[in-house]
Design goal:
This protein is an alpha/beta fold and 628 residues long. The chain has helices spanning 2-9, 20-23, 45-50, 56-63, 120-125, 153-171, 175-190, 200-209, 216-226, 237-246, 250-260, 268-277, 285-295, 299-303, 309-316, 364-371, 403-413, 432-446, 493-501, 521-524, 555-567, and strands at residues 65-70, 76-83, 89-96, 99-106, 110-115, 134-139, 146-149, 266-267, 306-307, 376-382, 390-391, 401-402, 422-428, 473-477, 530-533, 549-554, 590-594. Keywords: Calcium, Cytoplasm, Hydrolase, Lipid degradation, Lipid metabolism, Metal-binding, Phosphoprotein, Repeat, Transducer.
Length: 628
Amino acid sequence: MLCGLWRSRHRRPEEPPVPAQVAAPVALPSPPAPQDGGTKRPGLRALKKMGLTEDEDVRAMLQGSTLCKIRSRTWHKERFYRLQEDGLSVWFQRRIRRAPSQHIFYVQHIEAVREGHQSEGLRRFGGAFAPARCLTIAFKGRRKNLDLAAPTAEEAQRWVRGLAKLRARLDAMNQRERLDHWIHSYLHRADSNQDSKMSFKEIKSLLLMVNVDMNDMYAYRLFKECDRSNNERLEGPEIEEFLRRLLKRPELEEIFHRYSGEDRVLSAPELLEFLEDQGEDGATLARAQQLIHTYELNETAKQHELMTLDGFMMYLLSPEGAALDPAHTGVFQDMNQPLAHYFISSSHNTYLTDSQIGGPSSTEAYVRAFAQGCRCVELDCWEGPGGEPVIYHGHTLTSKILFRDVVQAVRDHAFTLSPYPVILSLENHCGLEQQATMARHLRSILGDMLVTQVLDSQNPEELPSPEQLKGRVLVKGKKLPAARSDEGRILSDREEEEEEEDDEEEAGAAEQRRRAKQISPELSALAVYCGATRLRTLRPAPPPPPPGQVSSLSERKAKKLIREAGRKRDVGHLGQEGRGDLQAPGGWGMLKMVWKGDGEGSGAVKSSGGPQRGAQSAHPVGLRGPRV
């Protein structure tokens, strides 16, 4: 948030270009060669602040370990890993063509640390190493996992425990500690030769890292004003002064001065006046005093119940000063409504980690989807060798992964972030035998997590709620028709492709069978609350389907239905301005919409107005009923 506000304030387009002597002030020396496997370190200040300098696991990480990095069955390379004394980063060294290469990764970028063979890479390639010696470091974003094997199980445990302690300490920091940590982490990254001094070139790197788009002339002017020693390096108090000027917020200073008056400090009554003017609920003098004791940095001012500008800024830039209610950072809505009353975050082509044409498929893609909050993931299932179904993007060059491995990833990671139900959307291209294998894997691997029958206490006329389905996995797929029911019909292969894949180019699509697909009774029985059906028209309104049916639409088909319904001008069944509305007729159950992607990737999304009209699942999806 701060970085975005700095950007416009520090632009100085009217100033002249930077002279050559400013643009390249002093050539930086090359980083010193590491001594005994390390780099020059600035000190233990950060670890002391964390209270971890005496921790045995952290001390072992500071000494470093030679760990084996595993990439394939034959690619096992030793690397020296060591926690740097900032407590924020791990340094490691490798050799490329006999030349040493040094790298760093940061603790705050770690998503999870897993013990044993809990990654796809270690399950496939780590057989030569005992699970007790192995660990996986999973990173946030698109960075690949780091699969490692330690010389001993105890050494592996030290890294697992040590990284967990560092991550927990970072998560537990208060606002002041987070700001201090944030500043020092970027200073450390920008200080390329680790001499605890900042050249102008390193200052420019720092500004780039924190997304401050500052004119070079203006930046150099600030640099020179803070360079009291006049040696083209900032250190100690000079760096602090530069950062103070960089963090200056005139708009906040104006607000502070408006309420503080000539003495330039806020008393508790003056802070209370500010809170009341902002319309804060429950603003009292005691509340103002509590804020002073929480956010004021100056101990003398705090003792006299006064707030300085620094304390005021700390408060406004804290979660308590944010526009978002901190109570709303978690689930605060009523989760006892039927499942169809909610939008559900979903993923399309979940298994892909790159291009839809020739990219790799991976179980790690499911782990990352769950880490990002997805509750509906897609499994594109095809016939595989040895009687084992595989998942990949059909008729393309994408790699294949085993269906059972994906189900294991669902079991292990579906509920690490959220307890609410997960929907497995099956795109089934398998024959009867491998469908039965899929059903067997779902039952044996997921066990009690899998919903296999209607809940005992559930009203048969309604879907269960997310609260009732906590920790449960639902299967979305085709169902065999009931003996006495014509309210839905089985989708043929061709129809399903039209509904869910008609915006994607598929080589060999003409070879798809047009006849209705045979459905395995074992797999059909698992689609308890999410049986696939088809929505043909919005006008006239069809009879409401029974609970537990999911209609599927492509973006193109959704637009067509909306346009057709709008043209019929069916009063009472139209959305605003006479447009067709997917949620107005009522009783659709659940609706899964697949948004059109742009290009090869699975993440490019264009909005077509579907969610505003009640559409529900795939890229930015939701599952929602008409009454909400």
